[in-house]
Amino acid sequence: MDKKSQENLDSADLLIKNGKYNSSIHCSYYAVFQYMKYALNSFTISLKNSNISYKKQNRMTKSRNSHIVITDEVVKRIIEVSPIDAHDFSQKIEKLKDHRNTADYQLNILKKKKSKKDLELANCLISTLKSKFLLP
């Protein structure tokens, strides 16, 4: 998933350069979502909450919204390290998700400025995940 995440970041950048702003926001969000799945699978930041394999993630999300389940599991783990960072992460990922929903499902055509900010936000969220989950 980390490679897919990076591919989505690269795609978001290319889409911005080519004026495809709605699609770039979609890629920015999914880059973070895929990295959250990778972080949960790969490492643990506490003894209380261990890693969650991809297989288990799939089982957990079979009858529930995968985006909510994965985000909740990530935030639960960040809380143990830094409640303030967990709150900040939660707000930022929800903001990016809202923008992705607008880009994907609303009539609005989003602008270059918003898509660039969302790509920056995605990179910031992935940096937080790398830091909090002790990922390279």
Structural summary, described in words:
- The chain is mostly helical.
- 77% of the residues lie in helices and 0% in strands.
- The protein has helices at 2-17, 21-42, 54-60, 66-81, 83-105, 112-132.
- Helix 1 (2-17) packs antiparallel against helix 2 (21-42), helix 2 (21-42) packs across helix 4 and helix 5 (83-105) runs antiparallel to helix 6.
Blueprint (SSEs and pairs):
Blueprint (H helix, E strand, L loop, with lengths): L1 H16 L3 H22 L11 H7 L5 H16 L1 H23 L6 H21 L4
Task: Produce a short descriptive summary.
The protein is mainly alpha-helical and 136 residues long. It has helices at residues 2-17, 21-42, 54-60, 66-81, 83-105, 112-132.
Write the element-wise H/E pattern from the N-terminal end onward.
Answer: HHHHHH
Percentage of residues assigned to helices = over 70%
Q: What count of helical segments does DSSP give?
A: 6
Strand fraction:
under 5%
> Which secondary-structure class do the elements indicate?
mainly alpha
Beginning-to-end CA distance, first to last residue: 14 Å
Poorly predicted residue ranges: none
- Supply Rg: 15 Å
Key traits:
0% strand, 136 residues, 6 helices
